Amino acid sequence: MGTIAFMPWIQFEDDFQVGDYEFVKIDPSSNPATNLPTPYDQIINCTLLHNQNNPTKFTAIKHKDESFIWDIPDTDYEGIFKTAEFLSATCMDSRDIMGHDYLNSETFSLYIQKFDQNPIQYISQANRRRGSTGHNTFNINVYSIKCADHIINRHTVKVDRAFFDALYSLYSNQTQGYEKIVGLIEDFNLANTDYRNVHTSSEFLLLCGAIERIVKGSGNAQMFRHKISEALNFVPTQPLNSTSKTFPTPKRLPWWQKNINYYTGYRFYQIDAFQNSKTLRDFWAIDFYRTRNKYAHGDKNNGNFIWLPQEHLCIGSQVFLQLLKIYLQKRGLFTLRNFEENRKLW
Q1: For residues 190 and 81, what is the distance between their CA atoms, to the nearest angstrom?
Q2: How far apart are CA 68 and CA 52, in angstroms?
Q3: What number of other Cβ atoms are within 10 A of residue 308's Cβ?
Q4: Where are the domains of the chain?
Q5: Taking CA atoms, which of 105, 112, 176, 200 is between 20 and 30 Å from 246?
Q6: pLDDT one-digit tens code per residue, 113-154
Q7: Cα–Cα nearest to 4, from 98, 122, 108
Q8: Residue 325: which of 175, 160, 186 has the closest Cα?
Q9: pLDDT at residue 73 in the model
């Protein structure tokens, strides 16, 4: 019995080690002398279901004292999968959002395959994938990997070790509050799949929830704006107001006018959604929360939102990662660098 672990759609610029595990880039086309064990050889030549993009370049994960084929202890599974979650989040921080190098969390899929060897072939016993439970699968030479059409499978990225090491240190040392942060990162990654089976409403709820929890809650658009402005007050932003020519004056949407049933004890009131908004950051925070509410409550109306939903999700992902760095800095695990202190998010 043996085990292999690999990330089929991604390569890192340099091999690196995390704890006892090494992440090694595999590219037989550029290095024909690469001496891969048979299971990896079969992965390269496998039949990928519903897809023509074979993973000819990928990353293998091995123990520093073991060969590429080894029996991973069950107790090590969690650490390996959590490492993939941290790599996904930290690498997305440097993605080119609107360019050809766009990344999402599916790009960092991790597979762990157990197999048994008989005289004829390697027979798959079980398969585990990051974010899923174990299940039986095909023989390894017809391995059931499907590369979704929103994944570009020839990415090579550089790991931000300062950011990654801070997250890994928080997790490995079980620093107070680490379980909450690990959960937020997993939610964040789920919100960045761009997978057609993950509804936009789910992405908004996951991402907004992750941001709210890291700034210690909001509950409504105005409080969300206040918390974001307070946490990111050092981030450059453009002064604006509700009469600025940059945006049309917001129309009063029906849900802004709260027609209260007097029998409930509530009073009638009316709110301008962008009241107290003085910067582009404020406008984004309000508009993001309004869009989140639209999807959360199943509103089918288009409304007059400033940013498109996909733009909100992209900007929101950068906001979350900046807030995460601030969280790590407050705990002495990370120091914001000059480019991060001066990064324009809006």
Answers
A1: 14
A2: 26
A3: 10
A4: 2-157, 179-341
A5: 200
A6: 777 665 445 555 556 667 654 444 444 444 455 555 556 555
A7: 122
A8: 160
A9: 84
Chain center to CA of 288: 18
40 touches 32 (CB < 8 A): no
Contact between 170 and 333 under an 8 Å Cβ cutoff? The reply is yes
Q: Is-contact 323 232, C-beta < 8 A?
A: yes
Instruction: Go through the chain and tell me how many residues it has.
Output: 346
The answer to whether the CB of 61 falls within 8 A of the CB of 5 is yes
Is the pTM for the entire model greater than 0.85? no
- Nearest by Cα to 76 from 89, 87, 62: 62
Other C-beta atoms closer than 10 Å to the C-beta of 53 total 15
Place of tokens 């590219």: 27
What's the rounded Cα separation, in Å, for the pair 281 and 240? Answer: 9
Mean per-residue pLDDT, 309-328: 90
DSSP code for 196 = T
For residues 37 and 24, give the distance between their C-alpha atoms in angstroms, rounded to a whole number.
14
Q: Is residue 152 a contact partner of residue 52, using CB atoms and an 8 Å limit?
A: no
User: For 13-37, what is each residue's pLDDT tens digit?
Assistant: 899 999 999 998 887 666 544 555 5
264-280 as b/e, with b when 16 or more CB fall inside 10 Å? Answer: eeeeeeeeebbeebebb
Quick one: angle between helices 161-172 and 74-92, nearest 10?
Answer: 140
Q: In degrees rounded to 5, what are phi and psi of residue 86?
A: -65, -40
